């Protein structure tokens, strides 16, 4: 392929026209850039004998429409995932719970335990991705320019490390008043510009009562 490998840590396959991720990615790669290609999905190969040490994965500006990371148990140290500029309408970030009565029932597996930055801007999401609330290391989540319609109570429930949430330019009409209540480390911006909110949100603002926090609600429907 036309991918460029620095022989040590960086794999650059951007603008190469590939439609699938090469199977022979070096186990030593820390950064992999597959942006601006024709990739339609990400298939994690759990059969590898060793775990990847990949920390930064860029899949922006591809043709991905549906993405499930339920098989990606070999991305244990991944810190940043860039999915901007695709056509993603379904993004699954958790492992389905075992059937009730099985030996594993009650145990929740967590994918991407080291993920700090998730960017899914300019896609077709209509809800917050399932399982996002299980990403306990997540610090930054950018989901602007999608079709998200509401924020539910549990969408960010366990994301105790979150510092920055960008939900600008969606179709949000409803936000649960306690959706952000326990996110005590928020310190940048809760960006809700250019949505479809029609009523003020005093309960949400009270629950975000931090002196260092900015909440941007401009250009809504009220």
Automatic annotation (TrEMBL):
Keyword terms: Leucine-rich repeat, Repeat
InterPro entries to which the protein is assigned, alphabetical: Leu-rich_rpt (IPR001611), Leu-rich_rpt_typical-subtyp (IPR003591), LRR_dom_sf (IPR032675), LRR_TM_domain-containing (IPR050541)
Keyword Cytoplasm: no
Signal sequence coordinates: none
Coiled coil: none
GO cellular component, as recorded: plasma membrane
Listed PROSITE patterns: LRR
The name this protein goes by in its record: LRC66 protein
Organism: Circaetus pectoralis
Taxonomic classification: Eukaryota, Metazoa, Chordata, Craniata, Vertebrata
GN (gene name): Lrrc66
